[in-house]
Design brief:
Helix content is 29%, strand content 21%. It is built from ten helices and twelve strands. It has helices at 47-54, 80-86, 94-97, 104-114, 121-134, 151-164, 181-198, 209-215, 233-238, 243-250; strands at residues 4-14, 20-31, 36-40, 62-67, 70-71, 87-90, 169-173, 201-206, 218-223, 226-232, 300-303, 306-308. The chain has an eight-stranded mixed beta sheet, sandwiched between helices. The chain has a four-stranded antiparallel beta sheet with strand order 2-1-4-5, with helices on one face. It starts with a strand and ends in a 23-residue tail after the last strand. Bound molecules: iron/sulfur cluster. Iron/sulfur cluster binds next to loops.
């Protein structure tokens, strides 16, 4: 049993006077304690909606979210803080989640007080100092206001606030995208250290595959509401099985300034209100076959701890790297 399990989760919105949108159309992934799982995909693929479903902010319209063996259901106002404590969400913009008029020590202490985790003001202050230290900040930062910190420091403060609740898992929705490259690398390393040291599962949502490669044990690739590939990060990076994964990885610049693959991914993510028939990726896929335009490929295990949703990858069949496929295979 995994700490956090998303089992064929669907999230559908009804737009007033317009057709409904399945922002998440059956997404499956799992997260263990002490593990960092990266969820990657282009903007608009449903990552953030899935993050909100994972922490119970959005109710799935299909499938299930299980946390610590229990299916997440809407809770009463009284019960909600306890569950939310164990499953925290960190947002992209730390500034908008911090109150500009309150000292950050007070804001970090809120969770400690609400959850009854400290017995006295002295214990509260000591715990705030400890939390700041865990995210690499000095204790006297507690007396300052959010605007006195850089973007990277504010994200550290947001992480300290999440840690105050002693969570088992943290979902981080694009936590690095507003930071410069140096701050990104530092925060990414911080997250890995915290996951290992505190045995916390971290689901890191990002459009930046290079960052995810740096920190994640496992990567799941999402396209237009569905997971199309999952596996150990190094294996997916070195030998992507799904053409979309291959395109994403190929678009990551190498240190010499070139991409690993010459072809950029053509076109844009289709409208989720009107997804393509068959494989959702087929209009952009260089390997598309007739079957791909009709039948949607299921997400299936194709190797140990490796799943893919592509007709090119069939369970039990030998894995042929995409780069070695010269022409579309027979349908
Ligand atoms: Fe491409 Fe077909 Fe695989 Fe979809 S199922 S990714 S269209 S080869």
């Amino acid at each position: 049993m995994s700490l956090l399990e998303l089992d064929a989760v669907e999230v559908e919105y009804t737009r007033r006077g317009r057709s409904s949108v399945r922002a998440v159309a059956g997404a499956t992934l799992s997260l263990e304690r002490g593990q960092v799982v990266g969820l990657v995909g282009e903007s608009g693929c449903g990552k953030s909606t899935l993050a909100r479903a994972a922490v119970g902010l959005v109710a799935p319209t299909g499938g299930a979210v299980r946390f610590d063996g229990e299916t997440l259901t809407p809770l009463t106002r009284r019960a909600r803080p306890r569950r939310e404590a164990k499953l925290q969400l960190v947002f992209q913009d730390p500034y908008s989640s911090l109150n500009p008029r309150r000292r950050i020590g007070v804001q970090i202490a809120d969770g400690l007080t609400i959850l009854g985790l400290v017995a006295s003001p002295a214990a509260r202050d000591a715990r705030v100092a400890e939390l700041l230290s865990q995210v690499g900040m000095a204790a006297d930062a507690a007396d300052r206001f959010p605007h006195e910190f850089s973007g990277g420091q504010r994200q550290r403060i947001a992480i300290a606030r999440a840690l105050a609740a002693e969570p088992s898992a943290i979902v981080l929705d694009e936590p690095l995208s507003s930071l410069d490259a140096s701050a990104q690398a530092q925060i990414a390393n911080l997250l890995v250290g915290l996951a290992r040291d505190l045995d916390i599962g971290m689901l890191l949502i990002s459009h930046d595959l290079a960052i995810v490669r740096q920190v994640a044990d496992v990567v799941s690739v999402m396209y237009l509401g569905v997971i199309v590939e999952s596996g150990k990060t190094g294996e997916v990076w070195n030998q992507p099985l799904h053409p979309y994964s291959e395109a994403l990885i190929g678009a990551v610049p190498k240190v010499d300034g070139t991409g690993t693959l010459p072809a950029a991914l053509p076109g844009e993510v289709p409208d989720p209100a009107n997804p393509p028939t068959g494989c959702r990726f087929h209009p952009r896929c260089p390997y598309a076959m007739d079957r791909c335009r009709v039948d949607e490929p299921p997400l299936v295990a194709v190797a140990d701890e490796r799943v893919s949703a592509c007709w090119l990858n069939r369970p039990g069949a030998p894995i042929v790297p995409l780069t070695e496929r010269s022409a579309p295979a027979a349908t």
